[in-house]
Design a protein that fits this description.
With 144 residues, the protein is of the alpha/beta class. Helix content is 56%, strand content 14%. The radius of gyration is 15 Å and the shape is globular.
Length: 144
Amino acid sequence: MRCVLDTNIVLSGMLWTGSPRRIWTAAQHGEIELFTSAALIKELRDVLSRSKCAMRLAEVGFSAGHLMKLYSNVATLLDPSLVPRLAPDPDDDVVIGTALAAKADFIVTGDRTLLTVAGYEGVRIVSVSEALDAIAQKASHNKQ
């Protein structure tokens, strides 16, 4: 399964426990393929430099550089496709463009406004719980 994770899911998965962590773990174990772009990497780096993240990084004993390296080792970097104005937030169009370039099955996000787009050109925009259901279905199908 090919996926693009919105930055909010990457951060949640790497820094906190819960459902986004399960997505991140699935990617680390090769159960899903992750794709990203330079713009999404930049956004992740910018968010990791904020004070809220700096405090959390200190709590969990990681550096921003360490998490960036982990993410870069798991996600495949590519150039996003150009897309028309789709998302309510123009910054989300790069997420959609990255998913199109990756021929992704899903964009996984916790952003309610991005979720209203639902999908574009065969790429579904889903919540963490929907993504986890799809991963579980794929794993169950592969065992049969």
